[in-house]
Structure of Leucine Rich Repeat (LRR)-containing protein:
Amino acid sequence: MRTLLLIVVFSISTISYARITIIPDPNFEQALIDLGIDSDGIRNGQVLTNDIETLISLDVRYKNISNLTGIEDFADLESLNVRGNNLTSLNTSTNTKLKNLFCLVNPLYTINISSNILLESLDIQVLHKLDNIDLSNNINLETLMMGDCWIDTIDISHNVNLKTLIADGAFISEIDLSQNLLLEYLDLTGVDISSLDVSNNILLKELYFGTFDGYIGEPITTIDPSNNVNLELVYGTNLFFLETVDARNGNNEILTVTLPSEFEGNPCQLTELYCVQVDDEVAATNNNPPYNNWRIDANFNYSEDCMLRILTKGDSGFSINPNPVKNELFLNSKNISGNLNLRIFNIEGKLLSNQSLSKPIFIDRKGNFTRCFQLVKWHVFSKN
């Protein structure tokens, strides 16, 4: 009886040890051989499952692999790098322990990561065949790199732990960051979006956006990081439509704003920018720290309030439209007894206009009027 039991145990152990995983792609198997993972060292379309099932990390970048069949038996895999291969589909649904996935520079049409709830880092850069990706189950995702990815829409509302988003050159036209409260690093350089709202991203430290050299796009007209008290750097390139920047976040001491502009390698000006709102207007105007480290390629004014300022004398019923002023200014006054004399000054104190306001007037920005009417004063003279 004892002899029979030993034979049965030995037979079961042998069967367990002999389990194999099919690897149909010869380049994939060769990569496993080169890495010393495939223990038989023979390219025979298979590998012992025992050789791969406890492997934690696998790096097979640039191995000309077209078929990743067999990856499903890498049960303990936490990190997978398949960069620069010929994969058209990728399914890691059985690799439930996966934390890091690098599948950039592949002709991928489909990616299935719906079961990878532990995933922390995902790199899908330079994927020109991929139409969409579902990230709704990847709630632990902290880093998403999708630069030059041709996906035109992306939903990251479920990725509440996201800290880093790199999407430079991506084909998306809009992005909702309202649920990404832990976001610290954001790069949208070369992304053709018309607006950017980072008001909920209080922990944001670095913000990059703008257009690439020689490309006129991204019609963003205003930047408002006033809620981002932890912000250390705003870097926006070639924002040719930019008109105002609200950088008054109460912590300009740690903030650097860089807004360079060039076309085909030659420096140029952001001609639309007229006002930058800051914590300390005097320090900024005098190029004192921290503003001496700021670079803004434009002829603009610093202000603590880029909205049109009005100095009132009593209840004059004075109205201004629009506010803030861009190209035109409409002024009207009610309940005035006497003659109203209107004077408009620029930020340097230069008198731009001096006229009576006995009736509503319309002022068009021209001549020596700048884009930002900084100060309005008026005096009421009695009839006597």
The chain has three domains: 18-172, 179-306, 309-381.
